[in-house]
Amino acid sequence: MSGLCEGRIVIVTGAGRGIGRAHALEFARQGARVVVNDLGSENDGSGGSSDPAEEVAEEIRAMGAEAIVNLSDVGDWKQTQALVAQTLDAFGGLDVVVNNAGFVRDRMFVGCAEEEWDAVIRVHLKGHFCTARHAAEYWRNQSKAGQPVDARIINTSSGAGLQGSVGQSAYSSAKGGIASLTLVQAAEMGRYGVTANAIAPAARTRMTEAVFTDMVAPEDGTFDENAPENVSPLVVWLGSTESRDVTGRVFEVKGGLIGTSDGWKDGPVVDKGSRWEPDEVGAAVHEVIEKSPAPQKVFGT
Q1: Backbone phi, then psi, for 196, in 5-degree steps?
Q2: Catalytic annotation, pick one of 41, 126, 171, 172
Q3: Which range of residues forms the domain containing residue 15?
Q4: Which residue out of 41, 157, 158, 172 is catalytically annotated?
Q5: For this structure, is 138 an active site residue?
Q6: Catalytic annotation, pick one of 175, 232, 240, 243
Q7: Domain annotation covers residue 288
Q8: Is 175 a catalytic residue?
Q9: What torsion, rounded to 10 degrees, do the Cα atoms 77, 94, 181, 108 define?
Q10: Can 158 be counted among the known catalytic residues?
């Protein structure tokens, strides 16, 4: 097949369902060879089955493209090392890592258990680290050996990570960490020919449909702005060679909307020029707050 990603070799984690499935299929339509990674777990991370990943791989093969299946746990260092090794063995290289896998265990902060916190941070934040870390080592070695590298890391943050979300302290923390991780990857990996960007998508998936009941598909045939397939064109473009000048960005995407999220920036300051006394601080704090734009509201407030 020919297309925007002709010949590119792509790992998509969590590619068995939802947004990840849409990414894998669109990369294949655009000529990429795809590694379909998915544990086949439930929405809370429990259980597992090879069926979702196998079904997506079969869809890809049916369209005449190449795909292999991988069932690695993205939060496991050795399993993700094996995932990258399998990709190199099967396809002879690696160009793109799309970190998408994750699950939710929503809970108000005061009721969040340690096990729930650890599980969510592990699959999202550590899960983004592991696969990309092994891929980065491969790309660095290629670059140091004088081989051309034009590679991509595409991470999945969330509006919850950028603005916070009531009932999602662990998820929001992980997704905020992913946005920051993306900035560091972009700054460090550019010398090796690697870009890093993140998306904050809004779409109808297993993780959203139970909470956001207004995301149902329209029955009148009009544009379905919440379809997960709407997110994938941006991700595929970011995975292509055309995007080599774009790095260190966080994109918000929903329906036909593509935008950037600016994130934290230095704001107004008050400089006394010497050490503050504690009883002087309050006035200074209120002064800089008055000069600052109001923060965006936390989701759910």
Answers
A1: -140, 125
A2: 171
A3: 9-260
A4: 158
A5: no
A6: 175
A7: no
A8: yes
A9: -60
A10: yes
